[in-house]
Amino acid sequence: MKTSKIVYNGSLRTSATHLQSGQSIITDAPTDNNGKGEAFSPTDLLATSLGCCMLTIMGIVAGRHNISIDGTTIEITKIMESNPRRVGEIIVEFTMPKVSYSDKEKELLEHAAHTCPVAKSLNAELKQTVLFNY
Length: 134
Hints:
Layout: E1 4-10, E2 13-18, E3 24-28, H1 42-64, E4 73-81, E5 86-95, H2 103-114, H3 117-121, E6 127-133
Parallel strand pairs: 5-6
Antiparallel strand pairs: 1-2, 2-3, 4-5
Helix pairs in contact: 1-2
């Protein structure tokens, strides 16, 4: 099954529709690459996808082990490099809810984050810095 349909709207913008759900997003080139920066850029989505995937896999593991991660937040920092222009580093900073997690629970959750499909799909040259604040 096809995943999405993307249309170029002009002025460095695209519309992407998730075919199964019908949900849409818009991308815009960033201001440092001739765009207006009025929406996620494709590289913003790449970096954001890493955080979303990590949190989703953590949620699966948390559910299996009856661990609450409700309210967890992530801040993503994308660091671009040039020559060639690419994402050089993604910093994923978790702020966990004020729960007294055991060392074993922390280990399970952190392992889940590091082994999500997006993390495993990215080029090894892309630095993934992952921080957990408990």
